[in-house]
Amino acid sequence: MTERRDSLTEEEMQALEQEFDAEVRFRPLPPLLGWVVAGVLFALACYHYYTAGYGIPRATTHRGVHMGVTLALVFFSFVAFGRPRPSTPGLGAPLGLPLADWVLAAGALVAALYVPWIFDDLAFRVGNPLPIDVVMGTILIVTLLEATRRAMGWPLPVIALLFIAYAYFGQSMPGVLAHPGADWTGIVNHLYLTSQGIYGTALGVISTYVFHFVLFGVMATRIGLGQLFIDLASALAGRFAGGPAKVSVLSSAMLGSISGSSIANTVTTGSLTIPAMIRIGYPRHFAAAVEAASSTGGQITPPVMGAVAFLMIEYLGVPLTTILTAALVPAFMHFFGVLVQVHLEARRRGLRGLTKDELPVAWAVFKAGWLTTLPLFVLVAILLSGKTPYLAAFWGITACIGVLAIQSLLRNGTNLKGAATDFVAGVWDGFVVGAKYSLSVTAAAALVGVIIGVVTLTGVGFKIAYMVTSVAGQWAESVSAGLAFLPFDVMSVPSLTLLFTLIMTAIVCVLMGCGIPTTANYLIMIAVAAPILGLLGVQPIVAHFFVFYFGVLADITPPVALAAYAAAGIADANAFKAGNTAFRLGMGKALVPFVFVFSPSMLLVVDGFTWSEFWLSTLGAMAGIWMLSSVFAGWLFAPLRAYERVLLTLSALLLVVPSLWPTIIGVLLVLPAVIRQLPMLGQTPQPVVEPE
């Protein structure tokens, strides 16, 4: 992977994605078993496609079928230890799959289907389970832990085990964390037989909404919508200074609207944009960081937003359109922050844009690929009409199938047999891959149900809330006392308490995100953090978005910045340096959540919304991000002097405060640098060359 190459091959992209994303590290299967597994995956996708359009069965049955088949497929698709490797068929490995995996798959399937099977008697079993119920529940919990470990690694299963231990040994816990405890029968009863554990909201959202949108994203990519976004971004942004980097930001924003995976976005767009960035003069680590920071925006960009948007509609009880509306401005702020830093870095280095010969023509690109946008318009239109999200996904997938049929006919002309073969292969491939990409997120959501079940069983969420707010309150009083000499109040004690609580919550979110995926991180943190922020008067939708944003930030936060490391692999750059730079580029995602907690109007759909608060907080945050970006780049309109960096840093901190007087003072602090540098605007900078 050197700068002389225009892009990676499809095989190289797949290898790179598997290296950094355990969720797609599938094992190679012998031909016969491979066809069997593919057939089951296709059938699972068809089941969800049909139920989305024609009605979803009873919740417990639907969730049990989805979880049982998915967990069985996890044991077929992921190896127990080490790198994925093929197995040789034999006595200990029927059809090439180790016997232990057959046993685990069968156990998971039977235990998951057991609850739907006894559903008519379930009301009589809850609170008084039969021995067979406890056995089946134990089997499901054990296989669920192992399935999640295979698909995602150790962190989430370890956390789940710690929560189970907390439920069991409650009487031995210190201080406020102590509780009466529960025996194993009571734990299994709560986690397995009630709707507050494994079969709860998290699994319901994955099986009812997320699967369908993952399938839509894969099908939309198969028909060429992702490539259209990349080509359009190149045509629109490539000619400006540092063009390939701006293409990276814009294409990642567009591609992120249909894909919720940071690493997949990084590999897909980065294989094209990173070599181009390096070619025009960006350092390798910076090129990798730009792509990683941009690609992490996919999970916060409407209309798909990954799994979390659909979890929010269940937990908050609001329509999906409310979540998508609330996400608009914060998503814009993230990409704005990356774009500003890219632009300032390009100006500082005197980097060119792409030439006319290197760029596609926007109209020609859209004319050739406009048909691929039809499914996205169908999806958005149905969502905005107020219909259920899964019905919108059904018609979006149907539109993808229709476009695929038209494309097959256009490619094959009068060869109808060839067109039919091409079409069937496309649908088969899209459905199989879409179902395969949902395996790990289902296992994680079901296991998070264990954690949430322990929280509801023990009440630990409110215990932690009390502890955190008490500590934050003590810190706030100490800081307030230390600032008493000032003739004015910087922040009140309640505001300082909220600030320290937010900082602690953000740190925990990022640390949790280093080991577990965004969806699981969000579910755990909202079970624990929502009571904390609720005690301090934060509106639920604001609390959910705060936790969500810092969970996503973990993908570009060292030491486990997986999206940045994947981009560094493409750029042949220092991975840790790329991660640090990506975190700096994604500072908008770190600053903006604090702004919308103190100024909720930025989310547009909150109680007490006012346009004056919205514009003050939004424009102030944009200005603050610009000033802080200038400090990092050492460039505003020309090179910054040392005192100007100090002024701009203070200005940035004041501008992001959603209050009138700090904003005015922040603007005044900027003026000396602006007045000195404004005459230099438009001058060609000297190229900067730094060692990598």
UniProtKB/TrEMBL annotation:
Pfam families found in the cross-reference section: DctM (PF06808)
Signal sequence, renumbered to the chain: none
Subcellular location(s) per record: Cell inner membrane
Chief location bin: membrane
Alphabetic keyword roster: Cell inner membrane, Cell membrane, Membrane, Transmembrane, Transmembrane helix, Transport
An annotated GO cellular component: plasma membrane
One annotated GO molecular function: transmembrane transporter activity
Transmembrane segments: 32-52, 64-82, 102-119, 126-145, 151-169, 198-219, 315-340, 361-384, 390-410, 444-466, 496-515, 522-542, 548-570, 590-609, 615-638, 650-675
Topology in membrane: Multi-pass membrane protein
Source domain of life: Bacteria
InterPro entries with a match to the protein in the record: DctM, TRAP_DctM-Dct_fused
Domain spans labelled TRAP C4-dicarboxylate transport system permease DctM subunit: 140-605
NCBIfam families: TRAP_fused (TIGR02123)
Biological role: Part of the tripartite ATP-independent periplasmic (TRAP) transport system.
Record protein name field: Hypothetical membrane protein
Organism encoding this protein: Oceanicola granulosus (strain ATCC BAA-861 / DSM 15982 / KCTC 12143 / HTCC2516)
